[in-house]
Request: fold
Amino acid sequence: MSRQVFNQETQVWDVIAEDLPVVPRTTEELASNARAYRGGLLSQTDWASGTDVTMTDDIRAYRQALRNVPQQADFPETIAWPQEPSA
Reply:
């Protein structure tokens, strides 16, 4: 894991690598993080939902699989993320 620290002398952000202890997260935090990640993946395909674009069946299925992630049996502890179809 790493973090960024602003160096006052050089006026540059430095990246510091460090091993931080893994902090157990609550189920609510895991679910929130997973939904945020899923939202980012969905937003990467928003271009395909425009009125001037015909959405392919592969993209449609991928977007639906992303929407279905919270219904997976072990969500949010274990998530099987769908694969984005190739362009």
About this structure: The chain has a mean pLDDT of 88. The CA atoms of residues 46 and 52 lie 12 Å apart. Residues 27-43 form the longest helix (17 residues).
